[in-house]
């Protein structure tokens, strides 16, 4: 069986060692790089190109800043944030930077393994607690019912929720990219979302 290669970057040595040990005890995974800063994350991405990169938000150089560097150096790597931060803005910022998942540090080894497998399959993973907070945040900001969307807007949102770009949505629905952008403008207004990531989280919660 081919093992999933993982990079673990966290500036708390004991926590990092615990994550590494937990993953190594499961036959699915092999940790091929460890670090404590965004610079370390970039080096691991460049030298090892892991399937998954686990990043903390709070570390030297900044976890959010590291996401783009990791993806630029190793485009096939999936970034999964592993953090104590329960700030919705931090969650949205991480997803906007390109992270495929956001997991809180209270997660057990099975939960972490599930999150890794989910993002490797091409889907986003957000800890249930954070999904609920993002949803509550959207509702407090005056989001509308999804039933106000037109059938075409629903089709667009289904693809947005899958992580597709405007270009790829256009190809899938046989629409020009500018038409997709127009639909997104209308969708964000109707849902009361500030960006497509927030809209996608809200959409998945309501389905």
Automatic annotation (TrEMBL):
InterPro entries for the chain: CheY-like_superfamily, NreC/VraR/RcsB-like_REC, Sig_transdc_resp-reg_C-effctor, Sig_transdc_resp-reg_receiver, Tscrpt_reg_LuxR_C, WalR-like
Record keywords, A-Z: DNA-binding, Phosphoprotein
Keyword DNA-binding (UniProt): yes
Keyword Isomerase: no
Highest taxon of the lineage: Bacteria
Domain Response regulatory span(s) in chain numbering: 5-120
One annotated GO molecular function: DNA binding
4-aspartylphosphate: residues carrying this PTM: 56
GO biological process, one term: phosphorelay signal transduction system
Every HTH luxR-type domain range: 142-207
Pfam families: GerE (PF00196), Response_reg (PF00072)
Protein name: Probable two-component response regulator protein
Species whose genome carries this gene: Rhizobium etli (strain ATCC 51251 / DSM 11541 / JCM 21823 / NBRC 15573 / CFN 42)
Origin organism lineage: Bacteria, Pseudomonadati, Pseudomonadota, Alphaproteobacteria, Hyphomicrobiales
